[in-house]
Design goal:
- This protein is mainly alpha-helical and 290 residues long.
- The chain has one domain.
- It is built from ten helices and four strands.
- It has helices spanning 3-23, 26-34, 41-64, 71-91, 101-119, 127-145, 161-183, 198-218, 226-250, 266-289; strands at residues 151-152, 157-158, 187-189, 193-197.
- The strands form two sheets. A two-stranded antiparallel ribbon has the order 1-2.
- A hairpin with a 3-residue loop joins strand 3 and strand 4 (193-197).
- The protein is globular and about 50 Å long.
């Protein structure tokens, strides 16, 4: 058997185990049974999102190849400060009780950054543009991800929104791939991602919504309507992949990194999540207001 295949399977398995342990209560339960410690699930989740954010920001900087100006030195201080503001809201449960107009502004910045990537790439060849894009593309999505689950530090409970979000993203990718493999004829974006087809996209949407129906049926305590979440994920997960593909293509890079052997970098694995997390968070905001 191909050694690279075994490496890919092993590293993918380890990645999945770590991720699930940090976004599902089974993680803290298992560690508390093994170690003489009391570990809260929300600390594992926060640690995972913090690592994803920092590693993603580092990879984004490498992809965009900053010059010798001052901008590359303030990327991390600025991004960490913004993520810190989200962190305060996370630990004080402020996500669930207060809606702020600054959230809409931050979500709008993500949209503007994506449009700039596809329509005005020249702006990103300046270090100032690279600075702004890196901060928006990494600090904001993982910051909003902190607002997806509900938890109680006193009752040691942690809800499963992020866990099922990852399940839907992985399933959407698989459904779209299989549908496209057997029925795909019309390319979605041949210059950016030549393997994606409209038939695969349609199959991913339909099958992901069906899966989301059963997720909600057997997990009625989740926030929002998960058929809506399934639709949003099936639409925006492929778009997230296209965004990262366009970023790498613009700067002549094949992989964002090699932190996960055989799978690439953090941005390669989380390109869909980076777009889906703020989109689903926006849906939760609107659903609460309605």
């Amino acid at each position: 058997m191909d050694r690279n295949f075994l490496q890919r399977v092993l590293s993918g398995f380890i990645y999945a185990v770590i991720l699930i342990a940090c976004v599902h209560p089974i993680g803290a339960e298992t560690l508390n049974n093994i170690l003489p410690l009391t570990i809260k699930q929300h600390y594992l989740f926060y640690g995972l999102m913090s690592f994803f954010f920092l590693a993603g920001a580092w990879e984004c900087m490498r992809i965009m190849k900053f010059g010798g100006g001052y901008e590359k030195w303030i990327v991390f201080p600025l991004a960490i400060f913004i993520f810190y503001l989200f962190s305060k809201r996370f630990f004080y449960h402020d996500f669930f009780f207060n809606f702020r107009l600054t959230e809409i502004l931050a979500l709008s910045l993500i949209l503007i950054a994506v449009v700039t990537l596809f329509r005005s790439t020249n702006e990103l060849y300046y270090d100032s543009g690279k600075l702004i894009f890196t901060v928006i593309y990494t600090a904001l999505p993982f910051g909003f991800a902190l607002g997806l689950p509900r938890y109680s530090a006193y009752e040691n409970t942690f809800s499963l929104e992020v866990f099922f979000l990852f399940i839907l993203i992985w399933s959407s990718d698989t459904f779209a791939y299989l549908t496209g493999k057997f029925f795909g004829k019309h390319k979605m974006a041949p210059k950016v991602s030549p393997k994606k087809t409209w038939e695969g996209f349609a199959g991913g949407v339909i099958l992901t919504i069906i899966l989301a129906f059963f997720i909600e049926k057997y997990n009625p305590g989740l926030r929002g309507n998960w058929m809506v979440v399934g639709f949003l994920v099936s639409v925006f997960a492929p778009f997230g992949d296209l965004v990262e593909s366009q970023l790498k293509r613009s700067f002549g890079v094949k992989d964002s990194g090699n932190i996960i052997p055989g799978h690439g970098g953090i941005l390669d694995r989380l390109d869909s999540f980076i777009i889906c997390a703020p989109v689903v968070y926006l849906y939760f905001i609107l659903e609460k207001l309605i």
